[in-house]
Amino acid sequence: MRLFFVLAVFPGLLCAQSDELLTKIWNGVQQAQAKITSGCGKITETRTSKLLVKPLVFHGTFCAEGLDRFALEYSEPDPIRIRFNGDYLNVTTGGGKNTEVIEVGANVRRTQAYFSRENSIENLKKNFIMDAREGDAREGDARKAGGVFILKLVPRSGRFGAALNYIVVQLRREDFLLRSLEVDGKNGVNSVFLIDVTSVNSKIPPGMFEVYRPK
After folding, report:
1. I need a surface site. Which of 31, 152, 157, 201 has the fewest CB within 10 A?
2. pTM score, two decimals?
């Protein structure tokens, strides 16, 4: 369930202490993925940009199962439904009247291979300036008290650098579940996602991941 296990880092050279902590986190993430096959919860996204008069705040719920099924539904300020299942992504707006169908299978499999191979940490070090530290969830974007691992990824260059300034992730220390995710893009949009995982390995309602697939 890689939704809950995104890695990230601070700008600067990767020091030995950070490298050791990153390895510890990576190993913990792999163990957690073997135990947790599905999860659901609440999500709050705060989106800022120089083009926005004030931040946009979205509230919703999500469920994920395995590596290829994901559902996100925003109820505020406007209803938006996102479904991903296998090769297709559906984005539904307008109260269910408008659905955009996007074929993403090849890109998803390429990304999964990049982050799931045995040399995936080396892939990250090659493409990102990385740092990792421990902190308190009251710091930064996480709103609940408790220990977290804080990681940041800054692209060195290439295809990642063309779209991203940085990504910051906070993982709960006790179980390596995602607590918050910040994505700062080259397009001037910054999105902070606060994640509250309320259930793991629970039965997902039938039809949760149904998508429209072109015939």
Report:
1. 157
2. 0.80
